[in-house]
Design a protein that fits this description.
This protein is 25% helix and 17% strand. The chain is built from six helices and nine strands. A five-stranded antiparallel sheet has the order 3-7-6-5-4. A two-stranded antiparallel sheet has the order 1-2. The chain is globular, with a radius of gyration of 17 Å.
């Protein structure tokens, strides 16, 4: 596991001073956590408190990296193309970061949706995460939003929320051999791996 010092060094290298917004500071960060009933996962927590509470240039095309708790400008007006729930998506509704993120695995609504899952679809977009920014995903989607899961079993993972569904960010994913058991896939990437891939042009940002 990457220790705090090396994580901090990587994050400092990825974001030069001229693109950083003012760090939040520990007192204000803990006040935000108290108000929302959640403790942010590391190293994002230290990043926001000590390095930058958002950046102008970063992994997200539209936003760089959002200020803690903010939503992209397009979130409130977003109309997901493959939204199958009878209740429309409401980007103006208050998000609930302390409630557990409901998904265990990636979900494609077009193929996996069941009418009984209407509450699950809403929860996936509003519960247990903080939004990091927005990307242009391609011709078949209107938007893809980066999010960091902060509550529930997937805490610490980066996920994308798009028209098509919700998926964990996969960075160089591979099989891990468990002695006496079946091989399992390595865990999805977290904040540090996400930033590192962007900074080095790997993963989502690889030029094929």
């Amino acid at each position: 596991m990457t220790n705090t010092a090396s994580a901090t060094a990587l994050l400092n290298a990825a974001f030069p001073a001229e693109v950083r917004r003012q760090p939040l500071g520990w007192k204000a960060l803990q006040s935000w956590e108290d108000r929302h009933g959640v403790v942010l996962p590391e190293p994002y927590r230290t990043f926001v408190a000590e390095i930058a509470n958002g950046v102008d240039v970063g992994p997200s095309e539209e936003d760089g990296l959002l200020t803690l708790g903010k939503t992209p400008a397009s979130w409130a007006e977003w109309k997901p193309r493959d939204w199958l729930s009878p209740e429309p998506f409401d980007g103006t509704a208050a998000r609930s970061p302390a409630l557990p993120f409901p998904l265990q695995d990636g979900t494609q609504w077009e193929y996996d949706y069941d009418p009984r899952q209407s509450p699950l679809q809403h929860q996936a977009y509003q519960w247990g995460s903080v939004l990091l920014g927005r990307d242009e995903p391609g011709p078949n989607c209107t938007a893809a939003f980066w999010t960091l899961v902060v509550a529930g079993p997937q805490r610490g993972q980066i996920w994308t929320l798009s028209d098509a569904g919700a998926d964990p960010y996969v960075t160089n994913r591979h099989y891990v051999w468990v002695p006496g058991g079946e091989p399992v896939l390595s865990s999805p990437g977290g904040f540090l791996e996400w930033v590192q891939d962007w900074h080095t042009g790997q993963g989502w940002w690889r030029a094929d």
